[in-house]
């Protein structure tokens, strides 16, 4: 009975198809499209780290490109991406433009013994397939505008995308948190510092060096998980904690500080102008621009101060660095507003921290700049 009913249904379907060929073809097309849509949905719903792993597996080589003058978060994310690439037989090369001057950044590179290459021209990229980490628009080297990255991993605001893979999470405090999540997505396990990698039974592993770097990247960009940190940053830090080398972490976190940096911090504090709970300090000319954000970090700790901007000049460029712990002040937007109208100026950042710069030759006095900064912090724009 059941077999006969099935045969009758098939016969009726064949008869309908012969009598209505156009409708039959349309029905087949709809079924194919439905299956394809279901497969695409299942593919999309897979963990992001799995999709990124598969994107890397399709490449023989990648250039993992950090932003100019990379900080610990950029270097940590790059190292994590490189480790994932290696485990799917994709050869990574870590590259950056600019310089690594800040003592914390140099300590990060040296303690973890990172093999990263500086570039000045697009022709020096190690591969056609470029992965941008901790920024979403290539910049800082000649020909950067012509680079179309195949993947972008970032936590900064921006419209940059990758040709095949884009993961920009502006609610995260660090790009290192995103990369750490990828290893959780693929079932990766951290390797403790006193354990050899071969002793860990897992298809994907995260050695102690990478765990240490990723954790410090998270800590550096969230001020030790106190500023701009999301729940995901805490979770990412916890997931890699078993593999962290505490001695290496301490050596990165406590590098020696140059005399000039201490002097710039002192000048920022002594020369600060205060309006309400906002402070702006012009530290003048200096040889190490990285001392400016460090001075801002120092100034924001002063009692009664909720938002600060430090201004300094190096090699014909005026640099600004801001910090905010005031819910009324989005520092990135405030700095954008402050330099609006100044030729060739650029600024931006997050709610809690931001930066900017413009040529010192621009026709704007420091007094007018300080006034514009205060107006922006106060929302009087």
Automatic annotation (TrEMBL):
Keyword Lyase: no
EC number: 3.1.3.7
Chain segments annotated as transmembrane: 23-42
GO molecular function: 3'(2'),5'-bisphosphate nucleotidase activity
Superkingdom, taxonomy of origin: Archaea
Stretches assigned to the DDH domain: 61-183
SUPFAM superfamilies on file: DHH phosphoesterases (SSF64182)
Keyword Membrane tagged: yes
Signal peptide residues on this chain, from the entry's feature table: none
Sorted UniProt keywords: Hydrolase, Membrane, Transmembrane, Transmembrane helix
Domain DHHA1: 276-373
Protein name in UniProt: Bifunctional oligoribonuclease/PAP phosphatase NrnA
Organism name: Halolamina litorea
